[in-house]
Protein: Ribosomal protein S18 acetylase RimI-like enzyme
Amino acid sequence: MIQSGKKCQRDRDALAFFFQNPPHVPDMYCRIATLSDLPALLHLERYCFNPFLGFGRRRWRYLITGSACTTLLLFHQETLVAYLCLLPHQGWQGLEIRALAVHWSFRQKGLGRWLIQLSQALSRQWHMRALYLSVDCENTAALSLYQQAGFQTSAELADYYGPDRHGLRMRCHSIA
Structure:
């Protein structure tokens, strides 16, 4: 399991943001993902995404235990309602949003916007030049959220989400 000093510090930074700037939804708590969270992660992922496009058990296991990712989970009472997976790329000094999901019953409550703000704050704190993500062109709600947060299209991704399901690569420059 990768638990380098940098990864541990990034995990602490993400949790600190939650406590300093909690989302405006009552009865929420957060924690960093562990292997024991796999069933809940997979359940929410299947609920939010096409099953052919989701990460699946093997990839989530790697992201949690073998990668430099920080995966923050948001719970309402005891139910996982949102997650954010961030991957820092030291070579090009960028922070990538690998996955972001919010359960439909918690949409339009500001959680997606809060997760984007968290990503932007951590990108600045970790001295990254930019924040990156990929999004399905048909996901108009996510596109609108990202554009409002300052993301701009940097590339079109033909058939990225399957035949005739195009994606966009988006980028938001970090402001120190």
